[in-house]
């Protein structure tokens, strides 16, 4: 951790000494009890430089917050950098996490922030850090906005000079990355929406109300050029069922996911899901906000199928595969919080994007799912969704190591991560796509691997799509030869024979999903009513003071929800209730299995939405 600029380091040290109490509490990195709201990307491992393309061999997790124990109520923010290999097998109970850069003890350098962005360069050797929220307990006054770069091979952080627009700092926005469209074939990063307040922006007092944005930062990693996009084209088109929108809703805490080969000039689209302002959740009913990269504008895109409703601090990843010659994309949404912290769930949704149709499937909570959570980070490696951290719904006492793996082919939670898998159409939606294909192009917040998938083979086999139902060609899943990314195996993978056991399992799953769907529909109706009512509620002035919402996400909606029916917000002070006290209550009456068997569950008022997805101070 040697900042490139000595004077900057000196200045920031002075700031830290003058304004911020020492970060006394050490976190047992890389294995704290909880970690949440950090920044994550997929890149190379140290000592394995490549000549151009990322090997996607390592998951990198920077910053965010962590706790030693569930009742630790300060010093959550950290600037530690942790890695997890993706090119070897491991058990989810004992993931080989490495503390690559211990917490520096100086929250300014490198930044100890939450819910900013970390983006990997196309060659996989650089991690760019931008944006994020600074600690509120202890209070760390935000420094001037900077863009940081971690050189994986040199093991060094530096502040980088950027060109283009002078931009400030934003937190709790929506990061995404688009492969190959930047200068010299590097990646182009995006960070849409988010908010600014006294914990993001240098010199703001807590008397300035938080601002929610609908602007978008675009960062060309190749030329290091920043753009602040504040007005949007009215020519955007993301399918034949979209309408342009030039003034999208401001929000924070949603997700943004790159999907290749759609939109104007087939440059791809960025799909925005969920999010909220201080007073209102975005209701993703049958419409999503989608950004058309080629036209530089947003649309309102109609969706079919299930309704996701309101959701914040979930995670979303995308995998694509060709089925009968056509590229079909799947955005997988996991977890998040619907209304308040007791509403954190472990639900899964799939958004299947096929040419002109965007169709949601509500998968619900699968058997063996982790405890409901929000503020976790996700990455897709082949057909494995790797979940890191999060704040749990029932505030488990300790969740070490807090790493989970979902097989996105079979939609089963696994206790093992296996390298060299390949994305394949989730069997659950094979009836939508007409078959199962495999592909190498995947993306998540800070990661995009396998390019845009244009040259992926079509492995969907000879089925003609007339075979409805998941029985079609379910066995197609993962290639077992482990050859990743070279696109040479065009051999048919789909088999087509489904054993009786698999059939029975699918039937059971179907029954489960139907029950789940019925419940969701009722809830969707309820939440639509709430949203309508909420639109009439005047915005709450938010002081943004450090105590407001400490230990919670910014959008603690418990009170907002009540206000939706009463028509008035509770007094501001409600927000400050008992930041140190912990109530013991029974387990929530939901069907989520408590994965953390034997751990006492309770609801801590210190855990809520995004604010709490703040920082932790890590260890050395
Ligand atoms: C460069 O990368 C290609 C594949 O991406 C590989 O075949 C080749 O051996 C590499 N060359 C060097 C010098 O590492
Ligand atoms: C982008 O521009 C908008 C509108 O002027 C401004 O509110 C916002 O702070 C800017 N974003 C950044 C990151 O500077
Ligand atoms: C949109 O495209 C689909 C095919 O992808 C077609 O079936 C449908 O009729 C089109 N709708 C409109 C309004 O053009
Ligand atoms: C994921 O599930 C598929 C289908 O059941 C299976 O073939 C594959 O081996 C699983 N992948 C891993 C990495 O376990
Ligand atoms: C596809 O199958 C899933 C369950 O496997 C079901 O929930 C969904 O409704 C089906 N979709 C269609 C379009 O038939
Ligand atoms: C949170 O939401 C749940 C239902 O979604 C509700 O039962 C509970 O009372 C809410 N909690 C608070 C603190 O508002």
UniProtKB/TrEMBL annotation:
Pfam families: Kelch_KLHDC2_KLHL20_DRC7, TM_ErbB1
Membrane-traversing stretches: 490-514
Keyword Iron tagged: no
InterPro entries: Kelch-typ_b-propeller, TM_ErbB1
Signal peptide location: 1-24
Comp. bias regions, Low complexity: 454-481, 533-551
The name this protein goes by in its record: Epidermal growth factor receptor-like transmembrane-juxtamembrane segment domain-containing protein
Biological classification of the source: Eukaryota, Fungi, Dikarya, Basidiomycota, Pucciniomycotina
């Amino acid at each position: 951790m040697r900042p490139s600029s000595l004077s900057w380091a000196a200045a920031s040290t002075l700031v830290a000494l003058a304004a911020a109490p020492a970060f006394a509490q050490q976190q047992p990195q890389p294995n704290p009890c909880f970690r949440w709201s950090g920044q994550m990307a997929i890149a190379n491992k140290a000592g394995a430089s490549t000549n151009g393309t990322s090997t996607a061999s390592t998951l990198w997790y920077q910053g965010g917050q962590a706790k030693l124990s569930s009742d630790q109520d300060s010093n959550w923010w950290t600037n530690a950098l942790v890695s997890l290999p993706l090119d070897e097998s491991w058990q989810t109970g004992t993931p080989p996490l490495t503390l690559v850069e211990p917490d520096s003890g100086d929250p300014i350098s490198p930044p100890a922030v939450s819910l900013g962005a970390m983006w990997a360069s196309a060659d996989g050797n650089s991690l760019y850090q931008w944006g994020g929220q600074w600690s509120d307990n202890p209070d760390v006054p935000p420094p001037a906005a900077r863009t940081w770069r971690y050189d994986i091979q040199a093991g060094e952080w530096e502040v980088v000079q950027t060109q283009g627009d002078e931009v400030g700092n934003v937190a709790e926005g929506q990061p995404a990355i688009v492969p190959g469209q930047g200068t010299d074939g590097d990646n182009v990063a995006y960070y849409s929406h988010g908010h600014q307040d006294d914990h993001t922006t240098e010199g703001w007092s807590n008397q300035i109300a938080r601002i929610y944005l609908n602007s978008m930062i675009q960062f060309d990693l190749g030329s290091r050029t920043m753009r602040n996009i504040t007005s949007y084209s009215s020519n955007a088109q993301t399918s034949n069922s979209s309408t342009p929108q030039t003034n999208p809703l401001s929000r924070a805490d949603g997700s943004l996911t790159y999907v290749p080969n759609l939109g104007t000039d087939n440059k791809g689209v960025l799909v925005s899901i969920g999010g909220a302002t201080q007073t209102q959740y975005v209701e993703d009913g049958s419409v999503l906000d989608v950004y058309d990269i080629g036209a530089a504008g947003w649309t309102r895109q109609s969706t079919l199928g299930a309704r996701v409703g309101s959701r914040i601090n979930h995670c979303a990843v995308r995998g694509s595969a060709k089925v009968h010659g056509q590229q079909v994309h799947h955005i997988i949404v996991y977890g998040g919080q619907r209304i308040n912290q007791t509403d954190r769930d472990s639900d899964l949704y799939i958004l299947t994007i096929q040419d002109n149709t965007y169709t949601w499937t509500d998968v619900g909570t699968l058997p063996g799912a982790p405890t409901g959570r929000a503020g976790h980070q996700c990455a897709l490696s082949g057909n494995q969704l790797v979940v890191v951290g999060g704040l749990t719904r029932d505030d488990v006492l300790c969740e070490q190591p807090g790493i989970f793996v979902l097989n996105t082919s079979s939609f089963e939670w696994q206790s093992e991560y296996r390298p060299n898998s390949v994305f394949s159409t989730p069997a659950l939606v094979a009836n939508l796509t007409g078959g199962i294909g495999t592909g190498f192009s995947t993306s998540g917040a800070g990661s995009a691997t396998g390019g845009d998938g244009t040259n992926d083979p079509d492995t969907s086999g000879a089925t003609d799509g007339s075979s409805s139902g998941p029985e079609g060609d379910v066995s197609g899943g993962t290639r077992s030869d482990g050859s990743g990314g070279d696109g040479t195996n065009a051999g048919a993978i789909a088999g087509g024979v489904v054993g009786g056991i698999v059939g029975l399992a699918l039937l059971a799953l179907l029954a489960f999903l139907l029950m789940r769907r019925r419940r969701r529909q009722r809830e969707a109706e309820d939440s639509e009513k709430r949203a309508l009512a909420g639109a009439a509620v005047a915005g709450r002035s938010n002081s943004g003071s450090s105590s407001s919402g400490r230990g919670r996400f910014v959008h603690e909606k418990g009170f907002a929800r009540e206000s939706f029916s009463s028509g008035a917000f509770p007094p501001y002070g409600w927000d400050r209730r008992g930041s140190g006290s912990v109530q013991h209550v029974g387990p929530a009456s939901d069907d989520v299995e408590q994965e953390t068997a034997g751990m006492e569950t309770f609801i801590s008022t210190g855990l809520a939405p995004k604010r709490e997805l703040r920082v932790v101070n890590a260890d050395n």
